[in-house]
């Protein structure tokens, strides 16, 4: 099982390779040089962690104590993300 370390500066993205929205988020973070950790829920350990966190939709973005489930890249701006993580 994963031992994710949650803090206000770390972005965690749960998704799947065949999820267009998930891939959109990966590209958005990469294009704006926003550091993040990606966990593919097709992996059994990642799916277990996803389930234990009570998550049900992908993509899910976790930033500190904030969770954004099933969110489209257009629904959360890079400026909002930078504000949340303090950069």
From TrEMBL:
InterPro entries, sorted: Glutaredoxin, Thioredoxin-like_sf
Sequence ranges assigned to domain Glutaredoxin in this UniProt record: 11-66
Protein origin, superkingdom: Bacteria
Listed transmembrane segments: none
Xref: Pfam families: Glutaredoxin
Stated name of the protein: Glutaredoxin domain-containing protein
The species this protein was found in: candidate division TA06 bacterium ADurb.Bin131
